[in-house]
Design goal:
nine-stranded mixed beta sheet; binds adenosine-5'-diphosphate; nucleotide-binding; alpha/beta
């Protein structure tokens, strides 16, 4: 088999036209350093920060073209935001949240307006202890993967754990946990959660055919979520991890309001682009008085599988700096790792399949930090978020 070289990859990438369809990504100088290890290819493409979503097809095309090169065992392509003088265009001052200290009061009954946030004021789920949301400003940053591995990490602490897949637009728990089939119904109404690896799980993915396009309107979203929360025989759980839908729009805000959350974890990649969105996520939970448990930097750095050498090719450290700046805990950095992806996509979280790996330990550490915050109980106030 011929050796894969950077030149071969670059030649292939010349078929990918740039964001403005003038020239190709290589000639435009948008491709980062290319890293090849074990016949797997890693690189990023720089795109304008305000057009990240629109550039997703470009990313997919680049990834596919590289995978098509004979001998390539895998490709991982990410988008990186263009930096303009250290700040990206959609990071303009007027779009920044105003200083909030303490969290902005919400139009809520007077009883809630005093003292620290009172997330438990909403009706809880009987038998379920703490409910923790895992959220991200945008899709594809590894939110669901992180949710699952945090859940397994919490289990490793001896806790009974459930996962509620609230991403009704793109449920991924059936795939990530290798669960198929439909939940049984008890008494015609209450569903039994599905389970695997000792985790109880409910997901819209169990209830509708995979191919069914799901078009949700506001009230349906809430009724689906309520059904998955309250019409499921969860039994006794110490903690429930809620995989939120990506984004920080109205739908997410409503969900965050409806679920009695003990706190929220934000997952972000180190790139500016994802960070800008993460900041919106922080602000969203702030609005609904849900304590922020911290930020996880996913796909933070890259460790070459052959040499074990570490490469900070994706701008590692961005989320940590942001967490410090915003005064929220930094929960940990998870490397970009082919094994995490492959296992996760094969329905076996790395924390289950390779519990002794350093990556599994990172997730367990994150889970321990999360748990120590929520189980610390009433003595610990939510961190104050101060936007400069
Ligand atoms: P989201 O829930 O944010 O849309 P997913 O958890 O579905 O993201 O992850 C998107 C893709 O990235 C999946 O293919 C997943 O396996 C992969 N992925 C997530 N985290 C990592 C990581 N740390 N290293 C490598 N691949 C990852």
């Amino acid at each position: 088999m011929s050796q894969i070289t950077k030149d071969v990859v670059l030649a292939q990438l010349k078929q990918v036209t740039g964001p403005d369809f003038e020239g190709d990504v290589v000639s435009l100088g948008l491709v980062s350093d290319i890293f090849i290890a074990d016949n797997k290819v890693f690189f990023s493409i720089t795109v304008p920060s305000d057009r990240a979503q629109a550039m997703e097809p470009l990313r997919l095309r680049a990834e596919k073209l590289v995978k098509d090169i004979p001998g390539v065992a895998g490709a991982l392509v990410t988008l990186t935001a263009e930096r303009k003088g250290g700040r990206t265009s959609d990071d303009a001052p007027q779009s920044r949240p105003k200083p909030v200290s303490p969290p902005a009061p919400q139009p809520r009954p007077a009883a809630h307006a005093h003292a620290a946030p009172q997330p438990q004021a909403k009706p809880g789920i009987p038998g379920v202890g703490k409910i923790i949301a895992v959220a991200s400003g945008k899709g594809g940053v590894g939110k669901s993967t992180t949710s699952v591995n945090i859940a397994v990490g919490l289990q490793a602490l001896g806790l009974k754990v459930g996962i509620l897949d609230a991403d009704i637009y793109g449920p991924s728990m059936p795939r990530l946990l290798g669960i198929s089939g439909r939940p049984e119904t008890v008494n015609g109404r209450i569903m039994k959660p599905m389970s695997n690896y000792g985790l109880k799980v409910m997901s819209m993915g169990f209830l509708v055919e995979e191919e069914t396009p799901m078009i949700w309107r506001g009230p349906m979203v809430m009724s689906a979520l309520n059904q998955m929360m309250r019409e499921v025989e969860w039994g006794n759980l110490d903690v429930m991890v809620v995989d939120m839908p990506p984004g920080t729009g109205d739908a997410q805000l409503t969900m965050a309001q409806q679920v009695p959350l003990a706190g929220a974890v934000i997952v972000s990649t180190p790139q500016d682009l994802a960070l800008i969105d993460a900041r919106k996520g922080l602000n969203m939970f702030n609005k609904v008085n849900v304590p922020l448990l911290g930020i996880v930097e996913n796909m933070s750095y890259f460790i070459a599988p052959d040499t074990g050498k570490r490469y900070d090719i994706f701008g590692h450290g961005g989320a940590q700096r942001e967490a410090e700046r915003l005064n929220v805990p930094f929960l940990g950095a998870v490397p970009l790792d082919m094994q995490i992806r492959e296992l996760s996509d094969a329905g076996m979280p790395i924390t289950v399949k390779e519990p002794d790996s350093p990556h599994a330990q990172i997730y367990r550490d994150i889970a321990a930090k999360v748990w120590s915050q929520v189980s610390g109980g009433s003595t610990r106030a939510a961190p104050k978020i101060v936007f400069e």
